[in-house]
Design brief:
The structure holds two protein chains of two kinds.
Chain A lengths: L1 E12 L2 E13 L4 E5 L6 H8 L7 E6 L2 E2 L5 H11 E4 L11 H11 L4 H14 L15 H13 L5 E5 L7 H16 L3 E5 L3 H4 L4 E6 L2 E3 L1
Parallel strand pairs in A: 3-8, 3-9, 6-7, 7-8
Antiparallel strand pairs in A: 1-2, 1-4, 4-5, 9-10
Chain B lengths: L1 H14 L1 H29 L11 E10 L2 E6 L6 H8 L3 E9 L3 E5 L2 E5 L3 E4 L3 H4 L4 E4 L10 E5 H8 L8 E4 L3 E9 L12 E4 H8 L2 H4 L6 E7 L5 H22 L2 E9 L3 H4 L12 H28 L1 H13 L4 H38 L11 H27 L3 H5 L10 H34 L9 E5 L8 H14 L3 E7 L10 E7 L8 E8 L3 H5 L3 E4 L12 E5 H7 L4 H4 L3 E4 L2 E9 L14 E5 L6 E6 L7 H14 L7 E3 H6 L3 H35 L1 H9 L4 H35 L11 H27 L2 H6 L2
Parallel strand pairs in B: 6-11, 8-10, 17-22, 19-21
Antiparallel strand pairs in B: 1-2, 1-12, 1-13, 3-6, 3-12, 4-5, 4-9, 7-10, 8-11, 9-10, 14-23, 14-24, 15-23, 16-17, 16-20, 18-21, 19-22, 20-21
Helix pairs in contact in B: 1-12, 2-10, 2-12, 2-13, 2-22, 10-13, 10-15, 10-22, 11-13, 12-13, 15-22, 15-24, 15-25, 16-20, 22-25, 24-25
The complex binds adenosine-5'-triphosphate (ATP) and magnesium ion.
The site of adenosine-5'-triphosphate has 10 residues of chain A, from helix 1.
Amino acid sequence: MIELKRISKWVMVGNKPNFILKDINLGIKEGEFVSIMGPSGSGKSSLLNIIGMLDDASEGEYFFLNQAVHGLKEKHRSQLYKQYIGFVFQAYHLIDELTVYENIETPLIYQNIKSSERQAMVADILDRFQIVGKKDLFPTQLSGGQQQLVGIARALIAKPKLLLADEPTGNLNSRQGEEIMDLFKELNKEGVTIIQVTHSEKNAGYGTRIINLLDGRVEL
Amino acid sequence: MISNFLIIAWRNLSKHRVFSFINIFGLAIGIAASLLIFQYARFELSYDRFEPKGDRVFRLEQDRFNNGKLSTQWAAGAAGIGKLVKDNLPEVESYAHLHGTNGLVVNYKDKEFRENNTVFFANDAFLPMFGYTAQKGMQAESLKDVNTAVMTASAARRYFGSEDPIGKVISMNKKKDFRVTAVVSDPPPNTHFHFDILLSFATFIQMNGPGAETAWGWDGFYTYLLLRPGTDPAAFEKKMADLVHSQWGPQMKDTKEGIAFHLQPLRDIHLYSNYMFESETNGNGRAVYFLLVIALFIIVIAWINYINLSTARSVDRAREVGVRKVLGSYRTQLVGQFVFESLLINALAVILGLLLVIGCLPVFNVITGKQISFSLLAEGWFWLVLTGLFLAGTFFSGFYPALVLSSFKPIAVLKGRLAGTGHGALLRQSLVVFQFAASVVLMVGTFAVYRQLRFMQTLDLGIRVDRTMVLKGPNVIDSTYMAKLSAFKEEMLHEPGIVSMTASTEVPGNKVKWNAGGIRLVGSDPTRVQQYRVLGVDYDFMKTYGFHFLKGRDFSKEFRSDSAAVIFNEAAVRQLGFGQPGEALNKRIEFWGKQYTIVGVVSNHHQESPQAAYDAHIFRLIPEVTDYYSIRFHGDENHSEAVMQAAKRQWAAFFPGNPFDYFYLDDHYAQQYKADEQFGKTFGVFAVLAIFISCMGLLGLASFVTIQRTKEIGIRKIIGAGTPGILLLLTRDFVKPVLLSFVLAVPVTWWLLHRWLENYASRIAVSPWMFVLPALLILVIAMGTIATQTLKAASANPSRSLRSE
Ligand SMILES: Nc1ncnc2c1ncn2[C@@H]1O[C@H](COP(=O)(O)OP(=O)(O)OP(=O)(O)O)[C@@H](O)[C@H]1O
Ligand SMILES: [Mg+2]
């Protein structure tokens, strides 16, 4: 599903390149549940952003479902992304001005899905995550764990093939964290490919594979 | 999608009430002000636009020269020019020829009115040229024959009520009768030429001789030309000049006179013509464009507020943009969302603006002295302008912030790496500079207009215009008039409180219409003649008005020779060629075939508003004048009911059959300032509005920046900064653009002021403090505005702001 070839990322400091990622070669198949680990500053988030097409690599090739992402125009990339990828953040990043229901609905709007269909889909997922009672609340009225549930629901609403999560449990207590991990496990069983960044060995254990980063390189 | 846009826009509006209020209210004021000014300007610009042949109609403006120097400029020129060009130049399809009257008493049976500048002699070409058609009576024959008249519908109603006016006879000063042959519709309000009654010009010729159609030295005749389609005005003027030169040149050469005619396009007369004998006080094109610029300023200032507040808040909105992009939004969709928000705000502003227009219309009418009615709401153009403002506002104010906001890169903003206030700060500051520069221009302008007005009102006029009542003299008179006038005067002087009374051809505040050419010193070169403005006065004129004698004496009954005496003013003495008043004393002048002796010289006086320069006046003793009686009285007030009642009583006794018409001279004189006053008021009101909207924007920015820096302020206070230090820190960023705006505004304002003051012969000097004072005022207002926000933050307890982090 994902094929990274000699991916590097650097920023110029003064007039010397400062490498964030260096020479990454990586393949991830459909159905995998991958955990990326490594010390702070090792480049985990940067790698995830490149995979999620939020950021460009400075060098190298990236194939997603056999399409050359590095050669795509912004608009096409965004179409590809919209169709296949869901994102979960450590800081949830819900839109404060929208209710739980509207937050979850938004990606569907951007995919031009009809209103009646949207209603059904949102109702489904609210049901599944057992947050029907919260649907008219605003994000500030929810606890951290609830907000993250909404964030995941929003990421999943458009039925993505790939779920990317950057420290999804970082702001939660351990019980809440476990619930989220169980949910991921379940989703993975249903066929969603998952890549998560985590600092916790225990969380990493839910996955099928661990990739260790150190100073922008993959540790073998 | 739209409903989603609407939801988020609405929630944003209600969440950030201050911003929403500033934006909507500011825009609404801008929209309301623009609509009102547009309406005013549209009316002024609509003058004479409706005339079907208007693009081919021109009025002849006449310049007279003496010894090659321009001496007078006339809206109503020589009697002979119309016929001359019609007979000789094929480009002229027809010419309209008119002559005004003043204070005629017109009556039909017992209905009697004094017609002030509303009765004109006109030839038969006038009505067709201006598209007047007969509502009643015969169109074709109108004004052809002697002793015929045409009335407007409202005048006909005034005299005849429900009777049919056609064929009825009205009489002028109970001396001359005219038969009404047609009734035409009233002239619309937006024409430069209004009349109630037209008398046939043939009658005027019969009364005054054929010179009324041929003379080149007799002024006061309005001449309009209808040129054939395709005539080039410039080429025609040239041909006309050649014609005048060949016809009248040889005669004019004798007296070194010169005359030139210019075509005034009909549609330009109202806004751009201000010469002697205008048929009515015209508008001021420059003032109209000034106001339009102000309208533009105000609406742009309001748009700038929106741009500034939206981009300043972009930091707030950035995270939302990032999330939306991650959720799959295209940039164009985000632009759409933000433009939609601007659309919503502008729509609310339009609604509020409409309410403001409706609420402020009566006030606006008082300020501008115009009568704009609510019927403007039924006019198509109004909604067109409104829609235009709405769309332009949405576009200008919404588009730039939308582009800025939608440009954020999601990972950057989600990681909180967006450079704090740096984003668009330069642009924001530049826009603030523009806002305040515009405010300074308007404020300095307002101050200057008021100072100039005060200056003119308190200027020593050289005469007294207070505590004076003026009666319009009788028109229906007979051979006993002189005796009656003396007796009337005698009786009036016996009335309590009355100091003196005088009869004269003009009173201060009037343009002197008696323009006499051909005047020279006896024995001097007969080709060196000059024109003077002459006032015919009786024995008490100088005394009543308090003229200051520089040399010589007043007219006196003790000198029987005074019927051949004149008094000059300084300007006239200089024009005659003398440096000192004394040199002119006892000199004799030629005046229309007679000789007069200069028995006195008085200092100059402002016959008209000090806007006009001192004129060269000759005062001639004519005790039997009929035009005006000026009555000066004692008392603390400029008006006196008792004097008026006494005058009315005596008038009825001495001049029965003449309407009693009076005015107080201070009011009459002040009339001349009305246009300036209204311009000043209008200017002032809109200047204040502009400053108000600018300050609202500043308030919004200050409150925003202060909120953003709350944490920094807290930390600074904990490490020892005092409230003044914090205030300085917060204020500095705002003072800079305001100060810069002064620097930019001063040269522009300086130039504009000089241009404007050129209109005034007596004017204030442009001094630096005229800039400093308004600028300081604006600075204080701006500082006060900012202080309301910063003071709160600077004096807040730091532990609170930090705890909430
Ligand atoms: N835009 C940028 N400019 C300069 N340096 C950057 C930029 N983005 C990331 N870096 C650097 O790249 C390195 C990797 O950052 P990244 O956020 O990927 O680390 P991380 O592994 O996710 O760390 P953490 O576990 O703390 O989240 C860090 O050293 C960071 O300083
Ligand atoms: Mg990270």
